């Protein structure tokens, strides 16, 4: 653990700057608006160690796969997010010398991410002999105008004498990805236009040998300032620069606003149309004041918080954690674009390539169902439906029928370069099926599952039916050579979670096929023989079980390991993924994240209290939680078992995973899909929220460290407020038709009045 920011309910703030923590600070002060995002880089420039990162939703590049061998079916490339043209660059000179916090003496440093407003603030005072100048920066990516980035810098002279100030707003296409092969540059500049008070660059991703699309991006900057504009020669063919200068008397101050419009070829089918739209949007933004742009932005954030805020009284650490989770989650995705999805690092770093994983269906869908309109989650489901063609290719590459949705993707084609993950971690097919069920169960909306969803389910089921094999010796169906959610166990046979999801998916698909209309059934064209085969697999699927321990066995052979709890790991050797060889990890009994427990969480009402207890008591002590996705589901299961202290411990781990750098890996970006964990732990865990037969059920408890907590929840056209105090739970219908809920076994009628 490492905490470098103060604990405040609405702010991630520090008054210190340590260069060795620069990357950590950059990650935790990242901004995004769903369309684009960036790390908390210093726009004036920084010559020390830094991970500069600006990313555009859906803009990526097929990087070479780093292997010296090749096998049939192996992905042709590794898809990676492209570090965008640097449009926030804002060099500042005092008396002709550039400001650089890696070299300058400074004081009064403050770095403040305001989560309520969605604004990043930074300030410090430069001290050079008798020269003393205070600088204040403010930055936001507008959620009211998705193409808009806004920066403002204020310079105040605290010296006894006048100082010369020069500010140079710039757009620079000479950028690279830190994780890319061979230090390649991925942008070719097509056009650069440098005016006296504006500038623009149109750049296109370089050609690739894989036939994937190239992307064009356009950035245009406009400036508002009372400084004098001066002519400047364009420094090179990849950068445009404007320059503004002035002399500041003692105690005088000046400011400069930099407004940038960012557009991409994802929305425009020609360079001419893209350029015209960029100019038009820039003209439109130029009509608004800085105050108006900021007000429009913060108003949208206010509406989001009104619907989704979780309020915790009595524990500021927990309060800050859950708001940080929700802020970064919404900064990454709010459902406006069904072509986009949620990458594990979002817009905060390059790790995981910026692509889509199974995290979305397993962890993000439950949260978005609870705090946004159903259309947001439906877009996530449509994302997969629209990529069925790619899923067919993935299955065919393995010589299998049906559709195999990718482990990692931008366009539906598998683009991950770790074999043990890419084509062994096939449980993701079941997770995608489960998300369809989860959406339908929660919303009551069957329009997707009976049409597009039915197609997805049948194609996944065809894959499972081809991927299983029948063991004549055991008279059961099995699945060999897989990796479950626990990635510390590779190439195992009969992973319980994978087998269980395959069985469940086939069963659920058969149920849905019995409900679709005649036209849909005709299009799906599933024969009676296929259905009979699927039912046979359901009836005779092998699920590893140990009757003595009363546990579902993670996979064949797992119990043959030397089973010792995590507490037996010598001090100083955790996280084990940063201290042990991969071979040692694979031979150990230690679990990266929930595997059997993931499945029990998925279908938590289908297991007896005894089954949940025996499996939790066996597997949780073996779990190192070195996946960011792990603590949340364990917190829910602990709460379900009334292990309240354990539930709170694991809530703190998931809610403050990055704020406290639990796994010592936040420097390269935040764990965005794991940001769902805080909400899951509070709502499903502490409040015990379940949906059973279309009705909401709650079984709340109040953590001993908290005075109270409350949250709002969207459910079938209603907005409900749940508050839990020392005297018990309270429920309020904020909007929508009256409904009946179940609270610890008692029916409660909700109208617009407060109900206790």
TrEMBL record:
Gene3D superfamilies: 1.50.10.10, Glycoside hydrolase, family 65, N-terminal domain, Maltose phosphorylase, domain 3. This is Glycoside hydrolase family 65 protein. Belongs to the glycosyl hydrolase 65 family. Residues 323-679 form the Glycoside hydrolase family 65 central catalytic domain. Pfam families: Glyco_hydro_65C (PF03633), Glyco_hydro_65m (PF03632), Glyco_hydro_65N (PF03636). The keyword Hydrolase applies. Residues 689-750 form the Glycoside hydrolase family 65 C-terminal domain. InterPro entries: 6-hairpin_glycosidase_sf, 6hp_glycosidase-like_sf, Gal_mutarotase_sf_dom, GH65_N, Glyco_hydro_65_C, Glyco_hydro_65_M, Glyco_hydro_65_N, Malt_Pase/Glycosyl_Hdrlase. One of its GO terms (molecular function) is hydrolase activity. It comes from Levilactobacillus angrenensis. Residues 14-266 form the Glycoside hydrolase family 65 N-terminal domain. NCBIfam families: PRK13807.1. Keywords: Hydrolase. PANTHER family: GLYCOSYL HYDROLASE-RELATED (PTHR11051), MALTOSE PHOSPHORYLASE (PTHR11051:SF14).
